[in-house]
Amino acid sequence: MTRYTMNEVKQKIGLSASTLRYYEKEHLIPEINRDSSGNRSYTDTDIEWISFIKTLRDTDMPIHLIKNYVSLFQEGSKTIATRKELIESHKEKVQKEVEQKLESLKVLQKKVKYYETVDRRKQRLSQRAFKKG
Amino acid sequence: MTRYTMNEVKQKIGLSASTLRYYEKEHLIPEINRDSSGNRSYTDTDIEWISFIKTLRDTDMPIHLIKNYVSLFQEGSKTIATRKELIESHKEKVQKEVEQKLESLKVLQKKVKYYETVDRRKQRLSQRAFKKG
DNA sequence: TTACTACTTAAAGTGCACTTTAAGTCAACA
DNA sequence: TGTTGACTTAAAGTGCACTTTAAGTAGTAA
């Protein structure tokens, strides 16, 4: 069975050692087995779990909701429906945020375009927009 | 000339009164003119500026970079090129983040699909993934 | 044996972006 | 005239998610 050191996990997943310890302490990830000298030894299953938690964090799910999700998981298969709802509603929230960001990107693109086409006269006019400070 | 109270701006833009004051104090937005009783009175130009600042915050540009952008603006047209670079590089960063989130959304969708199709046997197996705690 | 490196812990500290608090002013209405 | 409500300020407080610190241990190389 392949095992990984903390350093390997750090590389593989892209979380710092202190974050990995913090997640473990907060029970976002399981208690990791130790090798003969007391250092953490991660399994492929651990890696998979940590990766999914990272996906949740990458999409800004708050720690307290992830804890909620993990608790449900530990209660077993009777919580499948609730877990599905939790992930699905998070997914919908993220989708809306992405759509909002795409709108914002249009505004940024418009601004860049403006800077590309602006001439000296336009620039002087634009100064009037924020004349103080 | 149309003028707006803080309450109207709050509604129009979707920022709290304290955030509007905070942005003003930090010079992200210009010093707002006051009415006869000392209360803020926002112009359409103010609204436009605040909206753009909100777009920057909605896309998670840090306050210190926005301050940098505002400073450049105040230095006048000689900073147009720098401002364009600043906004453009931010735009590219946001685009990458959006792409990353779309990838994460695929993972979330996969998980939802899994929960939709999982049967009792599969659920028991999945329990092995996180057996402690 | 000594030094070095990589890990370990609990606890305190950090950074960011607001948000709340406490105390005060002003205009309108009963 | 008093009280209500919306504003004002500076300063302190909050929430979140880590990150850093300080002190210690275990294994390896010289």
Poorly predicted regions of chain A: none
* Largest interface, C-beta closer than 8 angstroms, per-chain residues: A-B, 51 and 51 residues
| Assembly category | homodimer
Percent helix range of chain A: 55-70%
Strand content of chain A: under 5%
| Dominant shape of chain A | elongated
Mean pLDDT of chain A: 90
Number of strand elements of chain A = 0
Number of helices of chain A: 6
The sequence of SSEs of chain A as H and E is HHHHHH
Nearest-angstrom radius of gyration of chain A?
23 Å
Largest sheet of chain A: none
What would you call the structural class of chain A? Answer: mainly alpha
The N- and C-terminal alpha carbons of chain A lie at a distance of: 64 Å
Structural commentary:
- The structure is a homodimer of 133-residue chains.
- By secondary structure, chain A is mostly helical.
- Chain A is built from six helices and no strands.
- Chain A has helices spanning 6-13, 17-25, 44-58, 63-74, 80-117, 120-127.
- Chain A is elongated, with a radius of gyration of 23 Å.
- The model of chain A has no long low-confidence stretch (mean pLDDT 90).
- The structure holds a DNA duplex (30 and 30 nucleotides).
